[in-house]
Amino acid sequence: MDGQGNAGGNGNGGGAAGSDCDAVARAFVEYYYNTFDANRAALAALYGATSMLSFEGHAVAGAEEIGRKLAQLPFDQCRHSVCTVDCQPSPSFPGSILVFVSGNLQLAGEEHQLRFSQMFQLVPNEQGSFFVQNDIFRLNYG
Q: Pairing state of beta strands 47-55 and 78-90?
């Protein structure tokens, strides 16, 4: 991650293939969930003007609206525990990466953890890093 909260590229214009894809995905996931758990408001910097978030079926667009949505979630404190991270290079945007995460979410004061799945599409930016173009989050019940 760079100082702007972005996953670093591999030095060739932000493209990602093979092990670079995995390294970028894992660095992003670690940064994203640590930031979510400690300072959710800082996550808005990971998104751009064209970014989209679907959170439990509620869609918002643009970094400012996404930041507002995340800040207004109905809990103050939580802790994410990531179980799996899968990634693939995505041909829809050259150099972009699809990242799929599954894990557990522990809300403050709650006895049981909640299972979640989240998908990100990371797209290279002009600074040679990445931003979140697409973000889909779902709790897994049952």
A: unpaired
| 50-54, 70-74, 81-85: segment of lowest average pLDDT | 70-74
Pairwise CA distance, residues 68 & 53, whole Å:
11
Q: Which two tokens stand for residue 13?
A: 């214009």
Paired with 120 in beta bridges are 99, 135
Give the DSSP letter of residue 133.
E
pLDDT tens digits for 14-46? 444 556 999 999 999 999 999 999 999 999 999
Report how far residue 129's alpha carbon sits from residue 123's, in angstroms, rounded to the nearest whole number: 8
- Tell me the residue length of the chain: 142
Burial group, residue 95, by CB count within 10 angstroms (0-12, 13-18, 19+): buried
State residue 76's pLDDT score.
83
* Sign of the Cα pseudo-torsion (49, 68, 101, 83, in order): positive
User: Model-level pTM?
Assistant: 0.85
